[in-house]
Amino acid sequence: MPLSEHEQRMLEQIESALYAEDPKFAHAVRSTSPQVHYKRRIVKAAFGFVVGVGALMAGLVINEGTVTIAVSVTGFLLMVVCCVWALTSWKRMTGIGNEAARGGGGGGRQVGGRGGSSRPAKTGFMDRMEERWRRRTEGD
């Protein structure tokens, strides 16, 4: 949704005030890409995954009974959490998976009737299967 003229003027005033108050910070914020942030998250997740593998291996080496199980389970959970964290960061960095979020969420969405949209419809596997099922049941 585009900003109104009043909102654009207010935003420009806020930006100019920020540049006047702290130009170094304003330049750093403007020049930093969100992808850099997600790359850092992926690196941290990879480091956490390696730590999780180490904890899992340490749990297998320790011969203390319940401590072994606790350390191994903690290492495994850390590996899973880091994988999820890295995958979500990767998706956000590359833009994969944003089509469903922008499209309204799915639910009762019809593939064929896009309401006269001028852009081509991107269909996924489930959308194609639903369309086939709809055509089959309607007898087309």
Automatic annotation (TrEMBL):
Residues 125-140 have a biased composition (Basic and acidic residues). It comes from the Bacteria. InterPro entries: DUF3040. Keywords: Membrane, Transmembrane, Transmembrane helix. Residues 102-116 have a biased composition (Gly residues). Residues 98-140 are annotated as: Disordered. The chain crosses the membrane at residues 42-62, 68-87. This is DUF3040 domain-containing protein. The lineage of its organism: Bacteria, Bacillati, Actinomycetota, Actinomycetes, Streptosporangiales.
